[in-house]
Design a protein that fits this description.
153 residues; alpha/beta; four-stranded mixed β-sheet; 8 strands; 28% strand; globular
């Protein structure tokens, strides 16, 4: 998998400086788009390296104010991203406490093999009543589930 999209590293100076993104989902009245899930980590740089190695795209890496850094990463094909942040008290959580974020995949064994090839430790596949899972964790112990539901296309 290759991803040549650039990482945003500067905060735009104005709304006019933000490029149009025709692939972005519109925010329609009445919709609630889940955009970001904060992931609590101890070492932002180590966590960013882990998620990039796992195949997530680094969308944003900015320092909008002294002592504040925000990194946004998106799993392949996802419309929802994660954010790693420091210097934002509103996002303070104990590192490693996020549990069981699900990444839905079409082929669990292929996804599992891809992560293993990237150096990520992934559990063996489990069949939990016709829904299949494999688990992995980031360096802080936040856990992720690869999930495959055979009936879902």
């Amino acid at each position: 998998m290759t991803d040549d999209r650039p990482t945003q590293t500067e905060v735009p100076e104005s709304l006019e400086a933000i490029p149009d993104d025709p692939t972005a989902d519109p925010v329609l009245p009445g919709n609630y788009l889940l955009e970001l899930v904060p992931v609590p980590v101890t070492d932002l740089e180590r966590a960013k390296e882990f998620y990039v190695r796992a195949g997530f795209h680094a969308d944003v890496d900015v320092t909008p104010a002294d002592g504040v850094r925000i990194v946004q990463l998106t799993p392949p094909g996802s419309h929802c991203s994660i954010t790693l942040a420091e210097g934002l008290p509103t996002l303070d959580m104990p590192p490693g406490t996020l549990r069981g974020l699900h990444l839905v995949v079409a082929d669990l064994e292929a996804a599992r093999a891809d992560l293993i090839a990237r150096g990520i430790e992934v559990s063996p596949t489990e069949d939990l009543g016709g829904v299949f899972y494999a688990w992995f964790a980031d360096p802080d112990g936040n856990t992720w589930a690869l999930q495959h539901m055979p009936w879902r296309q």
